[in-house]
Amino acid sequence: MKIGLYFGTYNPIHVGHLIIANHMAEFADLDQIWMVVTPHNPLKKKSTLLDDQQRLQMVFLATEDYTKIKPSDIEFKLPQPSYTVITLAHLQEKYPTHEFSLIMGEDNLKTLHKWKNYEVILENHDIYVYPRISDEPENVELKSHPKIHVIDAPIVEISSTFIRNSIKEGKNIQPLLPPKVWEYIDHNNFYKK
């Protein structure tokens, strides 16, 4: 089975994340998308980052109606800080019959060469890239790498930061969130302070 790993803090998960995940599930040659919730780095200031389990719960609520999209807490069980190369090695060991690929925005591809052991990732895993609007110069060498697949997905310019700030300001941003996620956030008064 070909699994696309879509990493994020999902603080909160929003319709933009689902649009990308669903597009990859339907239009790339992937069987499933695992939305990997990145745990809070204990070395960083928590600020507005919700608890790991709360963010995982939102991803679960957002994806339960999508048969090809699954929430994943795999990084919760790994040492911190989490490096993608270690997560991939762990997954490959745990699920030897699966083939794991990464899903990332074009902005992340531009800094991939700064990732820990990025050559190992490129050697062993495909990377599916969705377009993002960015001022960074393009990494032409990486973009033409045989393991990099640029997918013509919709450009979604919604950010979790914008959603958190809007909730804090008392704005109605309900259309930007899956209904069950909106209810969960509203019920728990998340992001209001």
TrEMBL record:
The keyword Nucleotidyltransferase applies. Its EC number is 2.7.7.18. It is an enzyme of class 2 (transferase). Coiled coil: none annotated. Keywords: ATP-binding, NAD, Nucleotide-binding, Nucleotidyltransferase, Pyridine nucleotide biosynthesis, Transferase. Pathway: Cofactor biosynthesis; NAD(+) biosynthesis; deamido-NAD(+) from nicotinate D-ribonucleotide: step 1/1. Residues 5-165 form the Cytidyltransferase-like domain. GO terms for molecular function: nicotinate-nucleotide adenylyltransferase activity. It catalyses: nicotinate beta-D-ribonucleotide + ATP + H(+) = deamido-NAD(+) + diphosphate. Pfam families: CTP_transf_like. Gene3D superfamilies: HUPs. InterPro entries: Cyt_trans-like, NadD/NMNAT, Rossmann-like_a/b/a_fold. Belongs to the NadD family. Catalyzes the reversible adenylation of nicotinate mononucleotide (NaMN) to nicotinic acid adenine dinucleotide (NaAD). NCBIfam families: cyt_tran_rel, nicotinate (nicotinamide) nucleotide adenylyltransferase. HAMAP family: NaMN_adenylyltr. This is Probable nicotinate-nucleotide adenylyltransferase. It comes from Flavobacterium chungangensis. The lineage of its organism: Bacteria, Pseudomonadati, Bacteroidota, Flavobacteriia, Flavobacteriales. The gene is nadD.
